[in-house]
Recover the amino acids of this structure.
DNA sequence: CGTTACCTTGAATCTCCTCAATACACGTGG
DNA sequence: CCACGTGTATTGAGGAGATTCAAGGTAACG
């Protein structure tokens, strides 16, 4: 990875993987970009950032000169309280755009931390304006991503505010599974889950102990398997029933 | 108000209140727009919609050819469950932009209902694209508004997921008061609150009964007064302390 | 082989919910 | 003017659900 360092030190970083060849482009969930758009994105991109699991990407209430797209790995967004409690707001996976708030407001409103080793595409914040000025389609995409984030937080809110323990646990498992699938990580209904039960607990607003006990009850349904690092979905329809039929945003999504 | 009907029937609606003279423009919380921008907004606007309290503006999972800005009155966004439970996601007040999801996705993800009589500016959805193509600043504003919405939902999530009963009730009261003030509705620390305790309960994820009892306890602090339609903030700093110091998005905000 | 991180389980306690009854304000029609 | 219905606010009682505390258990790692 020392070569990476060199590239970044160069300034222009001309030898980064061209965006047009980005392996994520093949994932069917993403919309197709025009050659011009791809060219701009490639020029927008100023580097790659490799972080190991447990690294902090953003700290609440701070600013950053960068915007990122997740190329690989998982991260999570959270807000923490004075006394150590924390609320997980959302998870970020390959294809997700993070740090938009830091570019739009004076500072970001939540922290972001990696769950696994992560590779990020780095974009300089000041070029976001160029994007808006010259690439209407991409500007619309950025708005799309912001609106989708809002939509997901709305789903979380309904789950936390109104659902029972079983429903909430089923919800978060299903949600994470679906997000993983959209990013092309699921094979044979199996995917690596880097989450601890504490992450899930903090996302659905339960204590770790209660989450654990609920999870135990849920496992008995046999609708999924999750012990060890691999999560396997066995009956997604039943899970959706348990979770209270969420309907995630449909259609192709943009991926900068 | 029959003249309104006529105007809308005309098609072009050339005689609507010019946006440049919109009384909301004077509210200090909104950013200043250039004459060109104001002109475009005026041309973007296709009419006004007047609704009485209790009207439904959007229904979850449906589509709409319109986008709206709230000119006056209060509304709230919510999602309902099969069995009647519902989660209030956010409130909308003068200056807020609603229905963006319906224009960006195939359908909106939540319902919106008026709490008071409401006047809305109507924008045709298809012109949103024109806005993005020709008015970079306004496109950025739309994204700003979407990101702010996300930010508010994040605050709600922290409150519902982690806070105690007292903290949650203090949070929602303070939040509504601050929103009202940003829209210029507060005078002498007083503002008309059209909310029932049930609205608040549905926003903070508590039962009506428990919300009521918590509210009773909170009233004894004397930090606010709320019986009858008028809410009065007595000690905002203390309320913020109780609510757990939320930090709403700062700075001038756009208002289309 | 000790440390660390995570998972699991039981017990006691407290929070919050449901049910149920009452009170009050308001508007309606008689 | 009063009787009645409706919507909202209030309060008490009992029980379901969540939290905290505490004590293992397991796997990974140096």
């Amino acid at each position: 990875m020392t070569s990476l360092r060199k590239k970044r030190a160069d300034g222009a970083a001309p030898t980064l993987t061209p965006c047009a060849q980005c392996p994520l482009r093949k994932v069917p969930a993403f919309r197709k970009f025009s050659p011009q758009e791809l060219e701009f994105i490639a020029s927008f991109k100023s580097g790659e950032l490799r972080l190991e699991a447990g690294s902090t990407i953003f700290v609440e209430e701070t600013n950053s000169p960068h915007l990122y797209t997740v190329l690989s790995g998982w991260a999570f967004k959270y807000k923490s309280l004075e006394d150590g409690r924390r609320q997980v707001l959302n998870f970020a996976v390959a294809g997700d755009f993070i740090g938009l708030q830091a570019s739009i407001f004076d500072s970001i409103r939540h922290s972001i931390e990696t769950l696994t080793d992560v590779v990020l595409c780095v974009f300089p914040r000041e070029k976001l304006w160029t994007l808006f000025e010259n690439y209407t389609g991409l500007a619309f995409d950025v708005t799309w991503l912001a609106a989708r984030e809002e939509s997901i937080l709305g789903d979380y809110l309904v789950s936390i505010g109104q659902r029972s323990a079983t429903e909430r646990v089923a919800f978060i498992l299903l949600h994470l599974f679906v997000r993983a699938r959209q990013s092309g990580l699921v094979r044979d209904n199996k995917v690596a889950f880097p989450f601890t039960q504490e992450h899930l607990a903090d996302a659905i607003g339960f204590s770790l102990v209660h989450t654990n006990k609920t999870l135990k009850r849920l496992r008995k349904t046999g609708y999924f398997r999750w012990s060890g690092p691999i999560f396997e979905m066995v009956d997604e329809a039943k899970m959706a029933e348990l979770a209270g039929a969420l309907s995630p945003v449909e259609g192709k999504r943009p991926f900068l």
Notes: Residues 164-165, 206-207, 209-210, 213 of chain A lie near DNA strand D (CB under 10 Å from a C1'). The two ends of chain A are 24 Å apart (CA to CA). The longest strand of chain A covers residues 66-72.
